[in-house]
Amino acid sequence: MITRIAIIVFLGLMTRTAVANVCDDSGLTTVNGFLSHKTECSKYISCYGGQPYELSCPTGFNFNADLKKCDPKYICVVNNCPSTGIVKIPVDGSCTQYVLCIGGVQYPKECQTDLAFDSATGNCVPAAELQCMENQCDSAAAPPQFYVNQYDCMKYYICDETYQPIEFQCAAGTIFDTTTNKCILGATCPVA
User: Fold this and answer.
1) Higher pLDDT, 133 or 117
2) Mind giving me the DSSP string for 101-164?
3) Any idea where the domains of the chain sit in the sequence?
4) pLDDT of residue 191
5) Which pLDDT score is estimated for 5?
6) C-alpha span between 41 and 1 (Å, rounded)
7) What is the pLDDT of residue 16?
8) CATH number for the domain whose boundaries are 22-71
9) Do you find a cis peptide bond into 144, omega within 30 degrees of 0?
10) What is the largest CA-CA distance in the chain?
């Protein structure tokens, strides 16, 4: 019985030491701070008193290691590369970013200005051709937030409480007016 208790205590100490090393290895033994989670973008590690605590960001947010906070606009790339071959994978929430996978290693890439990544062809194409819209919701701005689809002014977006855009469409014969944030009578979209 004593041997069994000793083994349990020993395993508990070993587990605690292994988990605590994530803070120790980052120099956060005596200083508090935040670290990225190794496998999940929406989670992070809070080092407090040298001890790690796994925490989750709100829905729709990812942990931004540069800002040391949960960020609704931060696009996190988890390695989804196959172990062999060459593949291009789009980055969720971005029109221009993609990951080039070569033999299981990922290389973050981005299309040049005025181009967007087309996952169907695996190439950068003119952005107007693809008509991809990136999230323009601003976590620093007060709600409500609206923005118009730059390719179709009958479509507009309202940012929800997690700063994710929800698409709406104006009725036939109307367009979305960004000065009033309403659908108004109008036959054509204004020229930008």
Assistant:
1) 117
2) EETTEEEEEEPPTTEEEETTTTEEEEHHHHT-------TTSPSP-EEE-TT-TTEEEEE-TTS-
3) 22-71, 86-129, 133-191
4) 53
5) 41
6) 43
7) 41
8) 2.170.140.10
9) yes
10) 84
